[in-house]
Amino acid sequence: MGDTITKVKILTQYEGMSNSRSLSTYKEHGGYEALAVALKKSPDEIVSIVKDSGLRGRGGAGFPTGLKWSFVPKTEGKKYLLCNNDEGEPGTFKDRYILELSPHMLIEGMIISAFAVGAQKGYVYTRCEFFDEIKWLDDAIKEAYEAGYLGKNILGLGFDFDLDQYQGAGAYICGEETGLISSLEGKKGQPKLKPPFPAVSGYLGCPTVVNNTETLSAVPWIVKNGSDAYRAIGTEKSPGTKLFSISGPLKNPGVFEVPLGYPMMKLVEEDAGGLLEGEELKAIIPGGLSAPVLLPEDVKDLTLDYEAIAASKSMLGSGAITIIPKRQCMVELLKLIMDFYHHESCGQCTPCREGTGWITNILEGFFDKSATVDDIDQIYAICQQMAGRTICALSDAAMPTVGIINKFRDELVSYIERGTERERFSYI
Amino acid sequence: MAVFTPQIEEKIEHYLQRYETRRSAILPILHVIQDEYGWIKDEHIKELDEKFQLHRVHVQEVATFYSMYRLKEPKKFRILFCDNVVCCIMGAKQTMAKVQEYIVAYEKAGKDCPFSLEGVPCLGVCDGAPAMLINKDRHLKINPDNVAEYMERYAPLP
Questions:
Q1: pLDDT digits (tens, 9 = 90+) for B98-107
Q2: How far apart are CA A229 and CA A234, in angstroms?
Q3: Confidence class of residue A421 from pLDDT cuts 50, 70 and 90?
């Protein structure tokens, strides 16, 4: 890939437009045209288009969207479509940007997706702290009802779909799809064992599809332009565009839409303007806090697609890129990461609830100088007993820990040996 | 005296009808109560049980599981400061220390300080790190030098 990458704007096509959130602006630029096209096709045709497009879940797991939809049984009865807008992975703020630009794109995507899977009712589950965004979404849903895009007999084409929003209350775990379902049922946001998968038995025991905001928002463009047009963007196994939210000590942090397969350092240095004066790159977290860290030499030629990042032993995740500067102490970083997971563990499974706690306790010893080098191996051993042994993937939080130990073991050892006197959390 | 005002009771009824099950309405109803009264009191939970048939155990489990619900009487201005990775790289801890200094200065003046400070994980606005919420207002790019100005807008030092 050279410097001439064409950036197709799909999710950010309303960027820079005044009043971009309003229905009139959305319609003026082709909004809700895909809906009219979709409702004249059969649901199976829509599933096929999305399957063929190669669209993969943009929330973190990267599961093929059309395939997920095809798991919904074709039986009669109540089905639900839930939008996971509980963007809580630290470093991630891409879904917020969609609501800021064009909530109608999400709504249109949800109506088409609901038609494809046969859902009559949908909810957008938004994290609690997005107070403004929830208001914008509320306004857009109201406009869509008034214009006949939601409710009974949409566009006179015989499809009924109701959409409502639901506000979370501050729990990271509700971003896990079965945790989200528990929360929507009015319970603690504790994940449920799979199988049964939500497509078969989800919200209130009914077939339920849970998709991320960004995934659903890409659907109108795909339906309107066809799966081949989408496949023409990005790489063979990771087609299309993706939003990357990039933050840290940068000149121009923010959300950027680029084709998958885009060079990581191009995003850092050109789109995000490079590091601030006087800052030097120490490491990059490529896909949200759960993704293992990468060193500058790992990312030098790295491209932003699911396969390339997996090959570098990390993950694309939610597309949240965090820049770690040279001045950042990795022991403190590790402590911040583990404090977060310990706080957010829902408490159901022992390896996660206790494991995250043990690790934070051991890390305390780094600060009060009681830690020994053996403690690093102890953390490592605990991590081995966490990942993959619980109901959900939160205990995979062990992954970034193992990543830091693997890449920065020398720094952790020297921190212990120096018996560092530095004041805790004295950044800069 | 009635526990809830008629307007709040109306909102509670609205949410009980709005969602698929009554239990699904617990989270939104607790938001309504907290917005109105500042926090969720035991008598609120009792009333939801007795008058609206929302089981006390069900309400209690939600109220205690989610970190945004307040079960103690709050200060007038609740500062939620992001102390996750990106905000800390950008100076959140030093800025939080200044918030604490402001609170101490307020108390030294012999007044009850209207601010409370909590560290919270990621507010989803890392491009504006360090970030904080004062009640429902989002403030971005807060640093040790400007944080006091933000706090003064809510309650200047006595």
A1: 999 999 999 9
A2: 11
A3: low
Q: What is the pLDDT of residue B38?
A: 94
Do A256 and A244 contact (CB within 8 A), yes or no?
yes
Is B130 exposed, middle or buried, given 0-12, 13-18 or 19+ CB atoms closer than 10 A? Answer: buried
Which pTM value belongs to this model? 0.95
What is the model's pLDDT at position A369?
85
At A388, the pLDDT band (50, 70, 90 cuts) reads confident
Question: Collapsing DSSP states into helix, strand and coil, what is residue A161?
Answer: strand
C-alpha torsion sign, points A92, A84, A131, B31? negative
* Adjacent-strand bridge partners of A122: A81, A163
pLDDT at A2: 46
Residue B60 contacts A, CB cutoff 8 Å: no
Q: Angle at Cα A202 formed by Cα A175 and Cα A117, nearest 5°?
A: 95
**Would residue A309 be called left, alpha or beta, if left means φ above 0 and alpha means ψ between -120 and 50 degrees?**
alpha
Q: 34-53 in B: which are within 8 Å (CB) of A?
A: none
- What is the Cα–Cα distance from B74 to B37, expressed in whole angstroms? 10
What does the buried/exposed string (b/e) look like for A111-139 if buried means 16 or more CB atoms within 10 Å of the residue's CB? bbbbbbbbbebbbbbbbbbbeebbebbbe
d(CA A270, CA A304) in angstroms, rounded, equals 15
Best of B89, B132, B139 to substitute, by most chain A Cβ atoms within 10 angstroms, is B89
Residue with tokens 């400007």: B146
Q: Count other Cβ atoms within 10 Å, centred on residue A88.
A: 24
> Does the beta-carbon distance from B93 to A427 stay under 8 Å?
yes
Partners of B138 on chain A (C-beta within 8 Å) are: 129, 131-132
Alpha-carbon Rg for chain A in angstroms: 22
Q: Please report the ipTM that was assigned to this predicted complex.
A: 0.94
Cα–Cα distance for residue pair A272/A253, rounded to 1 Å = 5
| pLDDT band (50, 70, 90) for residue B116 | very high
Q: Is A146 exposed, middle or buried (0-12, 13-18, 19+ CB in 10 A)?
A: exposed
How would you classify residue B30: left for phi > 0, otherwise alpha for psi between -120 and 50, otherwise beta? alpha
Q: Residue B5 corresponds to which tokens in the numbers above?
A: 């005002």
Q: Which DSSP helix (H) or strand (E) runs through A244?
A: strand A241-247
Tell me if chain A has a CB within 8 Å of the CB of B119: no
pLDDT reading at A420 higher than 80 = no
CB B40 within 8 A of CB B26: no
**Are A428 and A327 in contact, with CB atoms under 8 Å apart?**
yes
Amino acid in the structure at residue B53: Q
A203-248, pLDDT tens digit by residue? 999 999 999 999 999 999 999 999 999 999 999 999 999 999 999 9
d(CA A47, CA A65): 9
Distance from CA of B158 to the nearest CA of A (A): 30
Residue type, A196: P
